[in-house]
């Protein structure tokens, strides 16, 4: 597989100045303007704001009034509140130490299948729930390619070897292998080749309102 070029810099960190409201608003205005393919001059014509004022707003050098923000929101066709999203974001991290994952029984759990929930992010601004599991299959584990649920799932094989079914396809998973799939299609381990087997399963699905 050829190397792909990421569109985002995974090493970029948020500048501390983004915690300043004016800077956060300015960056959102600039981002929405770029997304719409609009120049500063065109935005100036649509809002009646001078190019100099728009430059100050985008660079975080001035605090725009609510009327100004309303004009910008209308011109850029975005909600007024979208200018504050970067400033208001709350970010969470869950640290689970080795052996401390919560052992649970998921719907459809069979004999010999141990599920340890490693964390849970649900109430977030992305509208997505993420659940990472450490799954261990012991020597007396059942096979059942019958899991089916909403969202997407990623499996990363840590130990052992299994044949994993997704729909009509069967994949041989060995340590280091990854399987990424639509979880709405029936899936599950079909053949336990080398046990015990352990793998990480990360499930992401839309946050229910």
Automatic annotation (TrEMBL):
Gene3D superfamilies tied to this protein? Jelly Rolls (2.60.120.10), lambda repressor-like DNA-binding domains (1.10.260.40)
Q: Where is the signal peptide?
A: none
Q: Which UniProt keywords apply?
A: DNA-binding
Stretches assigned to the HTH cro/C1-type domain: 29-83
Biological source species: Albidovulum aquaemixtae
Q: Show the GO MF annotations.
A: DNA binding; DNA-binding transcription factor activity
List the Pfam families hit by this protein, alphabetically.
Answer: Cupin_2, HTH_3
Lineage at the top is: Bacteria, Pseudomonadati, Pseudomonadota, Alphaproteobacteria, Rhodobacterales
What is the designated name of this protein?
HTH-type transcriptional regulator SutR
Q: Does the keyword Transcription apply?
A: no
- Give yes or no: UniProt keyword Protein transport: no
Q: Which SMART domains match?
A: HTH_XRE
Domain of life, per lineage:
Bacteria
> Per UniProt, what is the name of the gene that codes for the protein in this document?
sutR_4
Q: Name one GO cellular component term.
A: cytosol
Q: List the CDD domains hit by this protein, alphabetically.
A: cupin_XRE_C (cd02209), HTH_XRE (cd00093)
